[in-house]
């Protein structure tokens, strides 16, 4: 049974508001890590990630605000066409929000891949090519949205092909780039594993990248499925994807920061742990104690002796010759 447009837009506002709350919560934690915790550890503030965090949060907040305005106008005027008229500024703004959020998320992922491969441009040529294709598709989507005519909304025939291409490029770029990052980290981890003691931090990095990348790619794939099915549920999946993109970006920063904090605490406890003097070996207690506790060393010397039997008497020959050690 198809989902009516009214119910779809109500569910869109409800679910996007929920994910916005999660998005803003992770944004607050992320800002705390970037602005407070990093300087306290002597690390520099990464202003690029700080700017991306704030921009993504603003885009997510704007998207939900526009959705709220649209719902209020529909229910006060009774004009349901506002939900599907893509030429209205509210719907145009939402299309811009979705496109910008995806482009920013893909660009940050490509940047991370560039850093992991030691700033080698050759490693990110495929990802960069896909990202430039996404930029072209986003521009085309804006142009067609302005000239879209009909009551199908985002599911209009002239828009379905463009939005499907946009989501397909996002899924492809995310899968490819995340795989390249994981492959690079796994190779480095394998080459130095024999020299590592304790937990391998590179394996933790692989897990964080894989989990966040999988969540992002799965959300984009679900949105792509609703676009291809031309279902009104696309409003729900597309709006939720705006928030999930920012959440995935924030979670990577938060989880790496949490891992660094846990390791710093363990190192501090190990360095500040008191070691009882009785557990130290004699050589570690100081030269004075070593001198007092020095033990006498005995050196046994063996010597081959040729005995002249002519120099012994008969009694001595018949008796048992006992040799006593020196000093006995």
Summarize the structure.
With 328 residues, the protein is mainly α. It contains nine helices and no strands. The C terminus is likely disordered.
CATH C-level class is: Mainly Alpha
Q: What CATH architecture do you see?
A: Up-down Bundle
The name of the CATH topology is Rhopdopsin 7-helix transmembrane proteins
Instruction: Indicate the percent of residues in helices.
Output: over 70%
Q: Mean pLDDT, nearest integer?
A: 80
Q: Please report the total strand number as a whole number.
A: 0
Distance between the termini: 109 Å
Q: Tell me the β content.
A: under 5%
Biggest pleated sheet: none
Count of helix runs: 9
Question: Structural class from helices and strands?
Answer: mainly alpha
The total number of structural domains is: 1
Protein topology:
Blueprint: H1 5-40, H2 47-77, H3 89-116, H4 125-147, H5 157-192, H6 201-228, H7 234-272, H8 287-292, H9 314-318
Keywords: Membrane, Transmembrane, Transmembrane helix
Transmembrane segments: 12-35, 47-66, 121-143, 163-183, 204-227, 233-254
Structural summary, described in words:
With 328 residues, the protein is mainly alpha-helical. It has a single domain, classed as Rhopdopsin 7-helix transmembrane proteins, CATH 1.20.1070. Helices cover 71% and strands 0% of the residues. The chain contains nine helices and no strands. α1 packs antiparallel against α2 and α5 runs antiparallel to α6.
């Amino acid at each position: 049974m198809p989902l009516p447009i009214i119910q779809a837009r109500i569910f869109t506002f409800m679910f996007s508001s929920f994910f916005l709350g999660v998005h803003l919560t992770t944004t607050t934690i992320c800002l705390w890590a970037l602005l407070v915790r990093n300087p306290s550890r002597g690390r520099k503030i990464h202003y690029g990630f700080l700017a991306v965090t704030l921009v993504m949060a603003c885009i997510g907040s704007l998207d939900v605000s526009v959705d709220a305005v649209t719902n209020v106008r529909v229910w006060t005027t009774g004009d349901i066409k506002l939900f599907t008229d893509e030429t209205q500024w509210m719907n145009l703004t939402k299309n811009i929000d979705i496109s910008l959020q995806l482009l920013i998320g893909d660009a940050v992922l490509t940047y991370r891949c560039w850093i992991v491969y030691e700033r080698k441009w050759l490693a990110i040529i495929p990802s960069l090519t896909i990202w430039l294709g996404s930029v072209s598709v986003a521009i085309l989507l804006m142009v067609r949205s302005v000239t879209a005519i009909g009551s199908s909304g985002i599911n209009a025939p002239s828009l379905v092909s463009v939005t499907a291409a946009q989501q397909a490029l996002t899924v492809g770029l995310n899968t490819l780039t995340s795989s390249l990052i994981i492959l690079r980290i796994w190779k480095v981890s394998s080459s130095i594993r024999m020299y590592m003691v304790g937990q391998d931090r590179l394996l933790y990095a692989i897990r964080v990248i894989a989990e966040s990348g999988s969540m992002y790619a799965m959300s984009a794939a679900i949105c792509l499925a609703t676009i291809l099915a031309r279902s009104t549920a696309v409003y729900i999946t597309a709006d939720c994807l705006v928030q999930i993109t920012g959440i995935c970006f924030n979670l990577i920063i938060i989880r790496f920061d949490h891992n660094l904090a846990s390791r710093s605490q363990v190192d501090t406890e190990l360095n500040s742990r008191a070691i009882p003097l009785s557990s130290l070996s004699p050589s570690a207690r100081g030269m004075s104690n070593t001198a007092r506790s020095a033990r006498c060393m005995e050196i046994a010397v063996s010597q081959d002796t040729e005995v002249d039997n002519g120099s012994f008497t008969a009694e001595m020959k018949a008796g048992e010759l006992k040799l006593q050690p020196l000093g006995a």
